[in-house]
Design a protein that fits this description.
Length: 233
């Protein structure tokens, strides 16, 4: 088993890198990939840069060039659902692209031919996350996460995304990773800690809570890695 640990921003992977041993750095395609070990497992850590294009490229590289067979994404998100507060953890049941729009041709939002509106995450990884949450007494939330190339700081846009997709939280990379992993049949998991509420204060809150929320997510992800079976049967 070789586990990809991915974030979008340096702040999202720094808490992972701090705890990885035997690190070997490779620079490729203007990204840095850190191969190393955690809890006796091989891991490859990378951040993509912000947005769907960079995220898709990095996920593809982690799988095809660095031969990862499982991908765990860690980072922060804006809350849509009212029960989500800054610092809360949410795992994606499935992910969708809120900015994908060919409705002019009669298709639903988030759909293109041969694609899926909602791409589900791996059920076994979700079960493992519930186990970690229970053991640590963490109230891990679950829901649909909506992705788009847009930092949302607007109550109307946020409400539209919530209503249109039934989304609980939003961010800028998860669905791109989901599409790549789904196509390549690689089990994947997306975890986000809330950094803001995607409203007028979102820019300010994001800056204030990015580091702390990113660390909450990264610590949880590493607990999952610790509990992953050493090899998949
Ligand atoms: N990631 C964290 N907060 C976000 C927001 N408000 N919009 C998009 N991505 C985010």
């Amino acid at each position: 088993m070789r586990i990809a640990l991915m974030g979008a921003m340096p702040e999202e992977i720094e808490p992972l890198l701090e705890r990885i041993d035997d690190v070997c750095l490779t620079e490729y395609g203007e990204n840095r990939y850190y191969e190393g070990r955690f809890a006796g497992k091989e891991v490859v850590v990378a951040y993509s840069k912000i947005g769907k294009v960079f995220a898709a490229m990095t996920a593809g590289m982690l799988i095809e060039k660095f031969r990862c067979d499982t991908l765990l994404f860690s980072g922060v998100a804006g809350a849509i659902r009212e029960d989500l507060h800054i610092g809360d953890l949410i795992m994606a049941e499935s992910l969708c692209q809120h900015d994908l729009d060919i409705t002019a041709f009669g298709h639903p939002y988030g759909y293109v031919p041969e694609g899926k509106v909602f791409v589900p995450t791996d059920e076994r990884l979700r079960k493992l996350a519930r186990k970690v949450a229970e053991a640590k007494g963490i109230d891990l939330k679950e829901g649909i996460i909506a992705t788009g190339d847009q930092f949302v700081a607007d109550p109307e846009r946020k409400a539209w995304i919530g209503e249109t997709f039934g989304a609980a939280a939003l961010e800028m990379e998860g669905a791109a990773v989901a599409v790549v992993c789904d196509a390549l049949r690689v089990p994947f998991f997306v975890l986000r800690a809330i950094s803001d509420s995607a409203d007028m204060d979102a820019g300010f809150d994001f800056d204030a809570f990015l580091d702390k929320s990113a660390r909450i997510s990264a610590d949880f992800i590493l607990e999952m890695v610790r509990l992953l079976p050493d090899s998949e049967g």
